[in-house]
Amino acid sequence: MQMSSGLTIRKQEVIDQPVTHFHVYWLSGDIRIFPSKDESIHVVQLAGTRYPERKLLEVSVQGDRLMISDGRKKGLPIGLNLGRTELEVHVPNRLFDALMVSMTGGNLFIDTIQVLRCQCKITSGNAVLSGDIKELELHATGSNITGKDLKVERLKVQSTATKVQMSGQFLQVETTNSGRGINLECLTMPESINTVSTGAKTVIAIPDNEGFELLLNQRSGKFKNEFHVTTINGEKGRYVYKNGTKTIRIDIRGGTVHLKAIKGNDHPDT
Fold first, then answer.
1. Residue environment code for 244-260, b if the CB has 16+ CB neighbours within 10 A, otherwise e
2. When comparing pLDDT for 202 and 1, which is higher?
3. Which is nearest to 182 in space by CA: 254, 258, 106, 119?
4. Element (H, E) at 207
5. What pLDDT, on the 0 to 100 scale, is given for residue 265?
6. What is the pTM of this model?
7. Fewer beta carbons below 10 Å: N end or C end of the chain?
């Protein structure tokens, strides 16, 4: 069957076992993970008709773990181009324990899934994420990451030369970024925010709230704050807003960090 992308379904696997963890290891090409129409997991690889059979995906189930591996393995000889390929994973609309994705190049789409822990390692790619995730951990290099309609208890982002834009409800936030920047829109006030920014532009937008303690370590760079804070006992780098029940830690090592107040229909700077 030829799809609108011009690619053909080259391989399909249906997994009926009670899988709770799944791992995806992919070299390049788009990956789409989204709800299925039944209670099975459907793994589909699309590719051109000349794509070698021996290079198609490999699927294995070990206990409650599903492993999906790129048939191209660790790389290809220089100059060898097998053409485009795409991976689709259709998952039942239920809660999974863990999703792990490792990819280089291409685009990753994770659409409204329910998972306790999601870890993504992306190099020179793009990702669009949404869903209800207890723990979301992102490692990105030279990429573009977008998160929308997210509901995450613990968000951890480590990025290098990556543009990150995320919006949703987050309970705990930890970001470490170098180069380019992060735009984080918190629709509800997190319990804690911890950010380290090195030579990057970081915007953290939060709504007005009952108060927070701000611990600022500004080694170099610029800090912009839209909340009226006061120093605590005259201590350098320690401030309080209202009752100070939440905690915000900011470490600036060059670049800029902007702690922005969400007002009305405002969104973080792009």
1. bebebebbbeebbbbbb
2. 202
3. 258
4. strand 192-207
5. 56
6. 0.90
7. N
Count CB-CB contacts under 10 A for residue 12.
12
Between β-strands 144-186 and 126-141, what pairing exists: parallel, antiparallel or unpaired?
parallel
Q: What are phi and psi of 64, to 5 degrees?
A: -100, 15
Residue 54 DSSP SS3: helix
Q: Return phi, psi of residue 189, to 5°.
A: -75, 120
CB atoms within 10 A of CB 219: 9
Secondary structure class of 53 (helix, strand, coil): helix
CB contact at 8 A, 232 and 238: yes
Phi-psi region of 242 (alpha: psi -120 to 50; beta: other; left: phi over 0): left
Calpha distance 113→219 (Å, rounded)? 40
